[in-house]
Amino acid sequence: MTVTAAAVQPNLATVGLTKSFGGVTAVDGATVTFQHGKVNALIGPNGSGKTTFFNCVTGMIKPDAGTATYRGRDITGKASHRVARTGIGRSFQLCRVFPRMTVMENMLVAVRSTSLRRQLASARDPQELDRARGLLARVGIDHLEHSEARDLSYGQQKLLELAGVLMADPETIMLDEPAGGVNPALIDRIANLVRDLNAEGKTFIVVEHNMDLVMSLSDHVVVFDRGRQICEGPPSVVQNDPRVLEAYLGI
Ligand SMILES: Nc1ncnc2c1ncn2[C@@H]1O[C@H](COP(=O)(O)OP(=O)(O)O)[C@@H](O)[C@H]1O
Ligand SMILES: [Mg+2]
């Protein structure tokens, strides 16, 4: 039997998504479909609107125009906690952990809404603690459970953030530059985690500048330039597309 394109199911999809800041149109009519069950990469030069795109679809900011759907459900302009409830988890380009809280405290607050975070952090449920310990072991930092987050290396903080995202058991995980500023040993660990979690059924949408990582990890690559998709396809095809070389190198 031949596998046809119809076998690919959409995960996150946008049509004409647009967001301007004053005179700068950061996302400019982006029409993009990511594939369910796959590792998708979103690449593009600095300032091409990747983080703003993430922010628009995860409810951190509201788009000016266009639509976003998640597995066919409209999520356009929805607040971040509602987007999270549909099954999307995300990390941030500038890693977000609470520096003066311990690793375990960060895990316990990761699944709570912002306003209640501190109050509820003390309400410790043994099952949640077990789950947190399991995930910390999975990302390889369980020995740091009692350390304050600020004492971890940047790569370890990224692993903590990822473990926190996993606390909510999202079916889709959006990572904004997971390897940025991380040493090579920990980059390998992050790559292996993405592969294993994908094999367990999780969809990934990863913004990343490390091209070796993008090419080795992803099934589907979307290329952004000036706020919109200019090219998409399997990594081997995208890598050789003249539009991609032009966007990156200006040739
Ligand atoms: N909050 C903001 N206010 C003003 N301009 C912004 C803001 N966020 C992003 N931009 C601008 O939007 C463009 C896209 O930025 P960004 O989404 O961070 O790109 P990328 O993640 O691809 O590097 C850039 O020109 C950036 O300066
Ligand atoms: Mg960015």
TrEMBL record:
Coiled coil: none annotated. The keyword NADP does not apply. Keywords: ATP-binding, Nucleotide-binding, Transport. Pfam families: ABC_tran, BCA_ABC_TP_C. Residues 12-251 form the ABC transporter domain. Gene3D superfamilies: P-loop containing nucleotide triphosphate hydrolases. One of its GO terms (cellular component) is plasma membrane. InterPro entries: AAA+_ATPase, ABC_AA/LPS_Transport, ABC_transporter-like_ATP-bd, ABC_transporter-like_CS, BCA_ABC_TP_C, P-loop_NTPase. CDD domains: ABC_Mj1267_LivG_branched (cd03219). GO terms for molecular function: ATP binding; ATP hydrolysis activity. This is ABC transporter ATP-binding protein.
